[in-house]
């Protein structure tokens, strides 16, 4: 079935306001032999706004779960007791948040979410949850080691190396169940510092998949290394650190006045990818740090996780970062732009498609705004006036707009 996208210029707002729901998620953590695990850390991520909502998964003894990639989420954590039992009260969303749950969910049912579990001596584990208690069985893990060098090839001591993610392509194509991304409450458990010889070791890793390790230190460009995990200790690729590049600039309005609170991000796909983000200060200034050298796309937005954009700005397409230097960029100019509203429906049935990502971009592929449809299939996008733009719903559904 193909979606049908209807759009209008400056039409009335269509929003979905769902009531907040208090819910508790509980479960039990056991070892591979069925023994209860005390002191296991459980981290819950609850997704409040969906960008993708088609995947439904069934994992371990958890109920059928609906997992959504989210533009906003609420995180909380807990420890298991002597019986391995744990429970987490779902945090109340912000006053303007619009939580979304799987179709047919009743009040008090758990929104879509993800659980990460770690106990010392066991491999980091994850599960996708749908609202009912479940049992998570932990397995013995493996370890990975590596070395960190400076640009001259000398070992660097006391440098923190952290696990970033593990990807296990057991299902062929990309599947959310195959991707484990570490969350902040577990950062300390999976961070190791290099010794005098520049070497580091991390334990309690899953025994399969490809792990990515990361170094984020202000004086260096962000660096990463990969390691293929197995039951034997893995050796990660050598990490060479280079002096960081910095990009600075301002976001101003059409009158040249500073714009405070704007989110500015810069990214490149060169050298394995590099990315940084900052919020503009009262003077409109931002600072993107720990970058590698190269050409970056720098863009600004005021869209929050639960608020729509009030302005739009043309990205800086070729912002050149220089290793070890600070580069001042031209101003990014925020303009009111035009508002596109519309509805995404199923071509076969005419039914509205909720929770689908809609975005627009220019001919270079620079994103201007991203929206997610509500229960009525409606979306709202802020665009630059007077320019042809591509409008997409997941698959290519290109609509020129002027």
Q: How many structural units, i.e. domains? A: 4
**β content, as a range?**
over 45%
- Can you tell me the CATH topology of the largest domain? Immunoglobulin-like
How does the major sheet shape up? Answer: 5 strands, antiparallel
CATH class identity of the largest domain = Mainly Beta
CATH architecture of the largest domain: Sandwich
Number of strands: 33
**Helix count?**
0
Mean pLDDT: 77
- In helices, the fraction of residues equals under 10%
Cα distance, first to last residue?
A: 28 Å
Oligomeric state as shown:
single chain
As a whole number of angstroms, the C-alpha radius of gyration is: 23 Å
Classify the secondary structure makeup into a structural class: mainly beta
* Shape category: globular
Poorly predicted residue ranges = 1-21, 48-72, 93-111, 395-402
List keywords for this structure.
402 residues; mainly beta; Immunoglobulin-like; 4 domains; 5-stranded antiparallel beta sheet; 5-stranded mixed beta sheet; 0% helix; disordered N terminus
Structure, described:
The N terminus and C terminus are likely disordered. This protein has four domains: 68 residues, Immunoglobulin-like; 114 residues, Immunoglobulin-like; 99 residues, Immunoglobulin-like (Sandwich), CATH 2.60.40.1120; 91 residues, Sandwich (Immunoglobulin-like). It is built from no helices and 33 strands. Strands 12, 13, 14, 16 and 17 form a five-stranded antiparallel β-sheet that branches. Strands 20, 23, 25, 27 and 28 form a five-stranded mixed β-sheet that branches. The protein is globular and about 65 Å long. The protein starts with a strand and ends in a 9-residue tail after the last strand. Helix content is 0%, strand content 47%. Strand 21 and strand 22 form a beta hairpin. It has 402 residues and is mainly beta.
């Amino acid at each position: 079935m193909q979606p049908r996208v209807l759009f209008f210029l400056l039409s009335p707002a269509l929003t979905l306001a769902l009531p907040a729901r208090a819910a508790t998620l509980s479960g039990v953590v056991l070892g591979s032999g069925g023994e209860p695990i005390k002191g296991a850390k459980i981290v819950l991520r609850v997704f409040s706004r969906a960008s993708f909502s088609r995947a439904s998964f069934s994992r371990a003894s958890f109920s059928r779960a609906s997992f959504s990639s989210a533009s906003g989420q609420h995180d909380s954590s807990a420890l298991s007791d002597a019986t391995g039992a744990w429970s987490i009260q779902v945090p109340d969303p912000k006053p303007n948040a619009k939580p979304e749950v799987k179709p047919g969910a009743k009040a008090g049912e758990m929104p879509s979410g993800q659980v990460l579990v770690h106990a010392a001596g066991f491999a980091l584990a994850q599960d996708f949850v749908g609202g009912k208690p479940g049992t998570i069985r932990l397995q013995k893990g493996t370890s990975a080691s590596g070395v960190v060098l400076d640009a001259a090839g000398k070992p660097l001591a006391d440098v923190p190396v952290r696990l970033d993610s593990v990807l296990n392509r057991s299902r062929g194509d990309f599947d959310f169940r195959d991707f484990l991304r570490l969350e902040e409450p577990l950062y300390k458990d999976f961070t190791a510092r290099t010794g005098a010889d520049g070497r580091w070791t991390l334990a309690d890793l899953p025994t399969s998949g490809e792990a990515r390790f990361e170094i984020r230190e202000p004086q260096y460009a962000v660096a990463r290394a990969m390691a293929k995990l197995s039951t034997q200790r893995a050796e990660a690729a050598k990490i060479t650190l280079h002096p960081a590049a910095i990009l600075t600039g301002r976001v101003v309005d059409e009158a040249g006045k500073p714009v405070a609170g704007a989110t500015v991000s810069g990214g490149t796909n060169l050298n394995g990818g590099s990315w940084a983000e900052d919020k503009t200060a009262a003077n409109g200034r931002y600072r993107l740090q720990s970058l590698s050298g190269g050409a970056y796309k720098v863009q600004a937005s005021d869209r929050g996780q639960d608020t729509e954009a009030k302005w739009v700005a043309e990205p800086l397409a070729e912002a050149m970062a220089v290793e070890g230097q600070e580069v001042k960029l031209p101003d990014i100019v925020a303009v009111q732009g035009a508002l596109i509203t519309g509805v995404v429906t199923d071509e076969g049935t005419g039914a509205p498609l909720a929770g689908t990502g809609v975005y627009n971009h220019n001919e270079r592929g620079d994103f201007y705004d991203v929206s997610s449809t509500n229960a009525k299939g409606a979306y709202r996008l802020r665009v630059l006036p007077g320019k042809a733009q591509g409008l997409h719903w997941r698959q290519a559904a290109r609509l020129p707009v002027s």
